[in-house]
Design brief:
Layout: E1 13-16, H1 18-30, H2 33-48, E2 58-59, E3 68-73, E4 87-94, E5 99-106, H3 108-113
Parallel strand pairs: 1-5
Antiparallel strand pairs: 2-3, 3-4, 4-5
């Protein structure tokens, strides 16, 4: 659903998982602006190998310690998490092959309840 081309040798290539594409398509039906927000964040990551602090990018723990997550949308104060206000992306980077693989996109609950 999101395509990004590599212009320089040092830029990462984007490889979304099938699950990621299905999940993003489902979220886009709820709020089309999610797609552009995701594309912008991934473009930054592909170019710079890291995201600004507002994305709260961090390594995961335990059985998911090979992966990272970053926040696209955080639940506003005094609101309950929902499908369109609690959105994270789990991903990994293979620096040897210069590939960023997006694993999942969705709410904390959806992603992490499926993993336990």
């Amino acid at each position: 659903m999101i395509t990004t081309g590599a212009n320089s040798m040092s830029k990462l290539r984007f490889r979304p998982s099938k699950d990621f594409n299905v999940e993003l398509k489902r979220l886009a039906k709820l709020d089309k602006s999610i797609v552009s927000e995701v594309k912008s964040a991934i473009d930054i990551l592909l170019e710079n190998y890291e995201l600004p602090s507002e994305f709260r990018d961090h390594q995961l723990n335990g059985e998911l310690s090979d992966y990272r997550e970053f926040h696209i949308r955080d639940t506003p104060k005094n609101k309950k998490p929902s499908e369109i206000n609690d959105i994270i992306i789990t991903y990994s980077i293979n620096y040897g092959d210069l590939v960023l693989t997006a694993i999942h996109i969705g709410t904390h609950k959806k992603i992490f309840n499926n993993k336990n």
